[in-house]
Amino acid sequence: MSATSTPALATRSLAKDYGDRPALEPLDLEVARGQHVALVGHNGSGKTTLLRMAAGLLEPSSGSVEVCGAAAGSLSARVSLSWLSDTPTFYDDLSVWEHLEYVGRLHGVREWQPRAAELLERLGIAARRDDIPTTFSRGLRQKAAIALGLVRPFDVLLVDEPFVGLDATGKTTLLELLDEAANAGATLLVATHELSFVTRVGRLLALRDGALVYDGPPADTDVHALVL
User: What is the mean pLDDT of the segment spanning 11-15?
Assistant: First the structure.
């Protein structure tokens, strides 16, 4: 199988249990390179569990998950994948700009400054570049995390509830940035309740109580019923 035909994300009987409670039932799934996918479901449906295992941050109870042909959490997978959590974390002693420099240099981006400055400007936090993000409100923290996730190169972007806490301008800017990442060839898997994003993708995955209950185009199902 060539690199281009290897799925961007592939799970094989991937499952996660917490004691007697299944958080994710065995899942076989492939997301092709360049595909743009929305992941929906009520709170506790398994969305975050799936994304965290794909990001290599949570150990499966059984099965496996690969990113661009590499085991999730491996160095190769981490190079390919950028992860935006619904609860972003930051270093206590680094400013927003220092975080951006750290991430950019870590991923070999020599000219990280122009991209970092552009992201901060578009997200409306350029004036806060020298501030410590751990002191920010939820919305400002989310904007800083978006900038960190997008300042580096990636083939796959995993995003968990990115619109929560954002104002209307922030939501519009994030939609534009996700569109740009998609147009540049990245694979997107975004867990969200934001219907304005769901309508922009070609594939919708819906989880309910840890099980996959829908996999297909958004237009072919009642999205509201799957989200709520």
Answer: 98
Q: Is the pTM of this model over 0.85?
A: yes
CA distance 174 to 40: 18
Per the listing, tokens 């996660």 go with: 16
Residues 63, 57 contacting (CB under 8 angstroms):
no
Instruction: Give per-residue burial for 110-148: e unless 16+ CB within 10 Å, then b.
Output: eebeebbbebbebbebeebbeebbeebeeebbbbbbbbb
For residue 1, what pLDDT band results from cuts at 50, 70 and 90? very low
Neighbours of 205 (CB within 10 A): 23
Torsion angle of C-alpha atoms 224, 222, 83, 24, degrees rounded to 10:
100
pLDDT in the model for residue 72: 97
Q: Which two tokens stand for residue 172?
A: 């519009």
Burial of 18 (0-12, 13-18, 19+ CB in 10 A): exposed
From the options 3.40.50.300, 3.40.50.10800, 3.30.9.10, 3.10.450.350, give the CATH code of 9-227: 3.40.50.300
Q: How big is the CA angle at 36 (ends 139 and 64), to the nearest 5 degrees?
A: 95
Interval 58-86 mean pLDDT? 96
Question: How far, in Å, are 48, 174, 222 from residue 217 at the CA level?
Answer: 21, 22, 11
